[in-house]
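To the team - adenosine monophosphate complex, inputs and output below.
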Amino acid sequence: MAMTKENILIINCGSSSLKFAVINPSSGEEFINGIAERLGEAEAFIRWKFQGNKESETLNGGAHDAAVEALLHMLEAKGLKEGIAAVGHRVVHGGETFKESCIVTKEAMQAIEDCTHLAPLHNPANLVGIKAAQKHFPGLPMTVVFDTSFHQSMPDKAFTYAVPYKFYRENGLRKYGFHGTSYRFVSRAACEMLDLDISNSKILIAHLGNGASCAAVLNGESMDTTMGLTPLEGLVMGTRCGNIDANVFSFLNKEYGYSIEEITDILNKKSGLLGISELSNDCRVIEEAYMEGNKQATLAMDVFCYVLAKQLAGMAVATGGVDALAFTGGIGENSDIIRGKVVEALAFLGFELDKQRNLDCRFGNEGVISSDTSRATALVVSTNEELMIAKDTAALIS
Ligand code: AMP
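Output:
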């Protein structure tokens, strides 16, 4: 394989997993992708997809360091290592320090560590991934791309919680928002698809995956978003409750004796589509049951779509009007049922659904789903956070 040294290795490190991909930032071509899972357990393994073939290897109980070492050897064996120009790391929380992606330096590492109280599970894992990559890929420049940084353009009226202000002043308690890399990619892609000038555009985006949020993007900048201090706030998600009365904490404590940790676990892992449907967090399962008339699945779908439409209407306040509404993420890119319900609920904002176009946009097909007479355009955009990280990294090292 002819290979110039311009590809980017993307690393997305979680507490017990490590996702990776090698991407050409110009063409978007993905040479390999994979994941190491169950890191630190006896069953730890790494698997990848290369030239259409799926392969895997055991890590013999190894953790992140072993995973990155195995990744290095595998990339060497496949002849991919020599084409890698830099490593781009996805980092969850950049607090108020990181307003954009940057090169990894000692200071940047310290600043990511300083944000740990904002993302106690994620940021330490991200740092472990960066350190392992520095050890096994010495000499390669590294960058960090944050889920939060795109939303740093939000005005203070959008990110301030109405609680004693000292909690913000002393500890950074505020709305940060997530999925920023996806919003950056999708807002640009939507403007390209619709031939809109991004510097004069009002775009609403619904990123609907197992985690879900929506955002208001005005002239290319985030003005508001539904996720908050943590990804729990906002929309109904696979297992997260989204917006609720904060007094639910004391209610569940009094009625069931649950601790703060137990309630946090319920609201993050046992709520959302799973909690209401009592079936699954997987939208496909819910949709199937809904089509068969299952009552709980129908209620889960109704609440999901109603909350989403209501939040999107609120986002239109932040943009002061809507040129386009883009759906993305596993649900946004595939569920014609949810998109249809939401676009129809937003008819008063000027949306008119084209049912056939909506049906056609599934399984990787992007495009407009509103009618030619619709005053605002609804469309489906396939998000590509890895490509955005690769592009940021290429720009930073050039
Ligand atoms: P993500 O986190 O972006 O990978 O999205 C995962 C979510 O997308 C899950 O809830 C899936 O059920 C949902 N999803 C994937 N494919 C489909 C589909 N064909 N129809 C409905 N939902 C889907």
